[in-house]
Amino acid sequence: MSQTAFEALREQRIASLNLTVQEFRHRKTGARHLHLATADTNNAFLVAFLTVPENSTGVAHVLEHTSLCGSERFPVRDPFFMMIRRSLNTFMNAFTASDWTAYPFASQNRKDFDNLLQVYLDATFFPRLDPMDFAQEGHRLEFANASDPDAELLRKGVVYNEMKGAMSAAPSQVWRSLRAAVYPTTTYHHNSGGDPSEIAKLSHAALKAFHARHYHPSNALFTTYGSFPVAEHQARIDGLALARFDGQDTGLSIPDEQRYAEPIAIEDHYTLDAAEDPRAKTHVVFGWLLGRGNEPRAMMEAHLLAGVLLEHGASPLRQALETTDLGTTPSELCGLDDEPREMMFAAGLEGSEPERAAAVEELVIGVLERVAREGLPLAQVESVLHQIELSQREVGGGHFPYGLQLVLRVLAPTLHGGDPIAVLDLDPILVELREAIRDPEFIKGLVRRLLLDNPHRVRLTMIPDTELGARRAAEERAELAAIKARLSDAERRRIATQAAQLKARQEQADDPEQLPRVGLEDIPADRPMPEGDREQRDGLALTWYAPATNGLVYQQVVADLPALNEELVDELPLYSACVTEVGCGTRDYLATQTWQSAVTGGIDASASLRTSLTDLQQVRGVFALGGKALVRNAGALDELLLETFSHQRFDELPRLRELIAESRARGEAGVTGHGHVLAMTAACAGMTPCAALAHRWEGLLGLRRLKELDKALAEPEQLAAFAGRLERLREILAAAPRQLLVVG
């Protein structure tokens, strides 16, 4: 099909990101296409749909799963995972958010990119949505002994089980309750992933109807990124999918939320294991509904406000939450959620008690009133703007390609009717805000307008209930027993037959040759590898890589880990967690946090171990302290890293106590979501020294020791002894051989 199937709307160069944004519309269906043209060879694709659930049955989530269970051109049971083995992709996945569903991939290989494009377009626009796949991925009834109609009746399903696990974690339950209260009438009131108690209400017919309405090209946003020509993308998108559709008014949109006339306070409960002590386990969290996230100026002001209040330990609201005795640690929910059409700001405490909720509110409002009355130092506000500029420019990487990071940055605002170019090109707004913050009244007015004078505020007191999990399990068993009692013999046989069919379907070997693949002939013989320059500088070995980094520089000081006694080995991960959060030199931790924020995009420390390639019992370890900064701050980053490496202060004992309490809270909260990782870590602990240390540092053994340490540090002499061990580690690492790594 011809590239003229799309009409060009506009084009703009964004110098700060070194790319050109091109915006198109499909003439026949109205589908939108954004292309981010750049020299980057790691090309990315994403197709997304505005998905607006009207209940918590998880229809969007179940549809995401079943869309990837075979399609018109590729009628295999699991094309997604089969393509992982037939592809050179640098990323493949699918996401269900609160109000959108997206299917992204990335690849550096042209043939592979085209193969994945075929599979993704067919999966989204022409999925089979087989009833058996709906039963497998969504929900179904099945007997405990699948072939025995007299056995206990169970409810199963991939999404159903996934959400039971996800919603068992305390932070997830708190988040859902807060979201539901802050958004009482719009789609965000519902659980788009699916509430386990509601998923069973979803029918196969409702799933197909949701697909027909929401996965239409007229409701689609295509985004591409990289060096491949946009005309080729459009010809394939049109030929493989869009040419088969006409335009359609889907009637999909998200209205403004109905505003509260005055703040409200609610109580809810979350499940806590029966063996746990419920004391000091209450979450007290506040949520404010702010302006529209698709308006860049409003979004930037909200990020600026969240930053000046919560960025680090010297920020006024975070400092108050970290140092108060009303709770253990700031809530994981603290910060700005800019994903919804209208943003939400949240702040609060974990580890509190229900009767302290009013006092926590008094604390939070008191801090806001003080900031609105007294303002903040200009340097502190400038440092937050510096962080925003840095995040705008940074070329990220890791397991998530940079191109997809940019694409996801514009996704929600664009689907909500915003201007994607304005969302990417934030430099003009940064210039405006740099001028605006020079007025001492600006931050004061922002706090008052967005928070203090905003009546749409929710105080959520989330109380632990050690019996709630058992009650819900009993209710589910009773419901299933009642269903079973009503089943006719024919219905029982049908459930047993379906289980047998699903088992046979899972064991069925699909022909992989129905899917496209990359052959050796499609892979270039040479693969360019980055090469660094090596030199000696001030007696240290320096390795320097010089890729395009949009004006940022990354630096690491890397020290060889010497032999340590058992006690110090156990402290090493805690040393890494604390070293960037305490004072250094003559500065206390508050001044150090302000210094870090003013000149860097953050610094971090880690200890890592690697085995020899030829002998798994031989281990080499390094300690790395690194950070990133704009090139203009490279010298300041040097100074900060060297000062932090050699002159950390572990004499601020209350600060150490706070950091360990926060680490414990994070560790305990992460158990539910990372249970499989913890189990694998424990299972591997006896295989190699590295695996044993992973269990001691990051596994259940490490968490148990962290809990014991947190309790012990309540005794002043134990806290002083812990600080002494950290100081000993500092001295040992400062004397160890080290080298420098610079990227920029």
The number of domains: 3
Name of the CATH homologous superfamily of the largest domain: Metalloenzyme, LuxS/M16 peptidase-like
Helix content bin = 40-55%
CATH architecture call of the largest domain: 2-Layer Sandwich
Q: Roughly how many Å is the radius of gyration? A: 27 Å
The overall strand count is 22
Q: What spatial form do the alpha-carbon principal axes imply? A: globular
What is the rounded distance between the termini? 43 Å
In the CATH hierarchy, what is the class of the largest domain? Answer: Alpha Beta
What is the CATH topology descriptor of the largest domain? Cytochrome Bc1 Complex, Chain A, domain 1
Per DSSP, what share of the residues sits in E-state strands of 2 or more residues?
A: 15-25%
Q: What would you call the structural class?
A: alpha+beta
- Average pLDDT works out at 92
**What is the count of helical runs?**
27
Low-pLDDT regions: none
Model description:
This protein has 744 residues and is an alpha+beta fold. It folds into 3 domains: 3-251 and 485-514, Metalloenzyme, LuxS/M16 peptidase-like (Cytochrome Bc1 Complex, Chain A, domain 1); 277-465, Metalloenzyme, LuxS/M16 peptidase-like (Cytochrome Bc1 Complex, Chain A, domain 1, 2-Layer Sandwich); 533-743, 2-Layer Sandwich (Cytochrome Bc1 Complex, Chain A, domain 1). Helices cover 44% and strands 20% of the residues. It has 27 helices and 22 strands. Strands 1, 2, 3, 4, 5, 6, 7 and 10 form an 8-stranded mixed β-sheet that branches. Strands 11, 12, 13, 14, 15 and 16 form a 6-stranded mixed β-sheet that branches. It has a 6-stranded mixed β-sheet with strand order 17-18-22-19-21-20. Strand 1 (6-14) and strand 2 (19-26) form a beta hairpin. It is globular and about 75 Å long. 40% of the residues are buried. The model has no long low-confidence stretch (mean pLDDT 92).
